[in-house]
Structure formats: C-alpha cells, structure tokens
Amino acid sequence: MAMIHVEHLNKQIGQTSILNDINLHIGEGEVVGLLGVNGAGKSTLMKVLTGLWQATGKVNVCGVNVLSNPDEVHLHIGYLPEQNPLYTDMYVREYLLFIARIRCNSRKSKVESQQSDLEELIERVGLRPMANKRIRELSKGYKQRVGLAAAMMGDPEILILDEPTTGLDPNQLEDIRALIRELGKQHTVILSTHILQEVKAICNRVIIIDHGHVRLDKPLAEIDDLEATFRENTN
User: Fold this and answer.
1) Across all residues in the chain, what is the average pLDDT?
2) In three state form, how does the secondary structure of 21-83 look?
3) 36, 230 Cβ separation under 8 angstroms
4) DSSP 168
5) Which residue has the higher pLDDT, 115 or 8?
6) Distance CA 158, CA 79 (A)
7) What is the DSSP secondary-structure string of 117-163?
8) In angstroms, what CA-CA distances link 110 with 69, 90, 94, 113?
9) Mind listing the pLDDT tens digit for each residue in 82-125?
10) How many CA atoms lie within 13 A of 48 on its CB side?
11) pLDDT of residue 31 exceeding 90
C-alpha cells in the first residue's frame, strides 16, 4: 500500500527551482533515508509533504491530496523539523498534554481519553525520569525525545524526521537511533540526514537528492558501497 505518492512535484522560490520533477512512491512500513548535502532540497520536500509549503504537481499522503487539503494531512503525519520547536518554559508532561489537546481537538475527541496514551508514550520514548522537569533543563538528547513524542502524538501512520540526531553526543546519538529503529516497526518513517552512517543504522531504503532532483532511489540492501554511491550522485 502506497502511503506517499508524489508525481511531477516542482517547487520554486522566486526564480530559483528548489525541487524539480520529483516522483516518489513510499509504501507502508518503509524506513526511508532521504540523503543529500545541505541545500539539496530535503527539508523543502518534507515541508511540502507535511502541507506546510505549497508546490505544483501531485502529492497524496494516506489518500489525502496534500496540495488542496494541507490541514487534513496533519492527521496522518507526525513531523519533527530540524529546529525542534519546543516551549522550553513548560514541563515535559505539560507540553505533551498541550500537543495532545491540539491533535485531539482536530480529531473531535476528548483529551481525557488520551491520558493513558500520553503516559504510555512518555514511557515508550524514555521520558519517564524527565516528565516533571522543565524542557529547558533537559539535555539535547532528551529534548529530541520530547520532539519525537510530540510527533508521535495521536499515533500517526507516517513520521517525518528532519535531521533528528544533529548535535547529539555519541551516547545520545545511539539512543535516538535505537528509538527511531523501534518506531520504524510500527510506522512509515522518512528520515532526512546528510550522515551516511545514520542511514546504514536505521533505514531499509535510500533516496538521494541533489540540486532538487532525485538521483537515486534503491533498497539499502542493493547498495554495496553507500559512500561511493553518495559521491557518484552528488556534486
């Protein structure tokens, strides 16, 4: 089943072409590494998929036409942008309950019915020891866990994660990678990164973007040398 279906997607900002004739089909349960150098178009593609930016072409996510129904697609996607947008004066549990209210209201359900799900989510992402602390007091690794928990709120089918391990120390890096691997067992995941080791550790499919074009789209198992393949497909 195709969770994401993109045909002839183009995005311009002013006179500059950011995405050029992008065609993608991402199936249920895939963990896709979106690879490219800085400025290749990875974050722009993610913003289009999440309905944050308009573009031209065809973009369907879980059967929703993203370009004509950007608000509806938010019910199906959990998004962690590169700049994790946290309210750092709030406590962890307070912040996640705030996110739950927003998402639950959009589903016309009561937040109270989600309380047990919230506690389960806090446990699942390893935030139990930090649940009663202010977000500003947390390490970068725990802040990323809060961002992941917020993206997972409401159990969306698709998780879109933009550079989720940037700036983490080696221990935090492995913890977040392990968490994303676990999430990939129950969700379709798109992971943007420029770190090749990240893709090897987490993903089962690789898409390389360069100057707004898809240069390669293959299962990771079919790529013998990811480093060489990356060099061959980027300028």
Assistant:
1) 90
2) EEEEEEECCCEEEEECCCCCCHHHHHHHHCCCCCCEEEEEECCEECCCCCCHHHHCEEEECCC
3) no
4) -
5) 8
6) 8
7) HHHHHHHHTT-GGGTTSBGGGS-HHHHHHHHHHHHHTT--SEEEEES
8) 24, 22, 16, 6
9) 888 899 999 999 999 998 888 766 544 454 556 667 888 898 88
10) 29
11) yes
Distances (CA, A) of 20 to 55, 91, 214: 11, 42, 8
**Structure tokens, 177:** 């990678």
| Residue located via tokens 């309210």 | 87
Sign of the CA dihedral with 128 first, then 129, 132, and 135 last: negative
At residue 76, what is the residue type?
H
Q: Which tokens in the block code for residue 29?
A: 């349960």
Which structure tokens are listed for 146? 């809060």
pLDDT at 165 over 50: yes
Say how many C-beta atoms besides its own lie within 10 A of residue 87's C-beta.
Answer: 14
Residue type for position 42:
K
Task: Report residue 140 as tokens.
Answer: 């970068």
Q: Burial-class residue 150 by CB neighbours within 10 Å (0-12, 13-18, 19+).
A: buried
- Residue 75: CB atoms within 10 A of its CB come to 15
Residue 143 corresponds to which tokens in the numbers above?
A: 């802040």
Class at the top of the CATH hierarchy for domain 1-76+157-235: alpha beta
Within its chain, how far is the Cα of 57 from the centroid?
21
**C-alpha distances out from residue 56 to 11, 60, 93, Å:** 6, 12, 39
Q: Give the percent of the chain with pLDDT over 70.
A: 94
Tokens of 203: 């993903």
